[in-house]
Amino acid sequence: MFYGQKETNYNCHFLKNDNLVVYPNPFTHSFSFNLSLNEQSSVTIALHSLTGTVLYTEKLALPAGNHSHTITVNVPSGAYLLKVNYGNKHKSTIVIKS
Fold first, then answer.
1. What is the value of pTM for the model shown?
2. Burial of 91 (0-12, 13-18, 19+ CB in 10 A)
């Protein structure tokens, strides 16, 4: 039941392709993510502290296709920002170190 609000069904299927899903999250020593590339791309991966300090960077040249990438990083417990850039796409998500 809705009080003073209209139910709206948004078709958001396009968002699923743009999400950066990290697993496991929280992580202990390493985490992975999947990436689907339509063409050969230069991929830049960076892990930042929430204050903006860059803690990890990696650059990859990957062919078109589906890829799984694992990052092993030694950082204290806490929240971090993972950024993945390729082509004109910029993806980011929060990862938690337990």
1. 0.79
2. middle
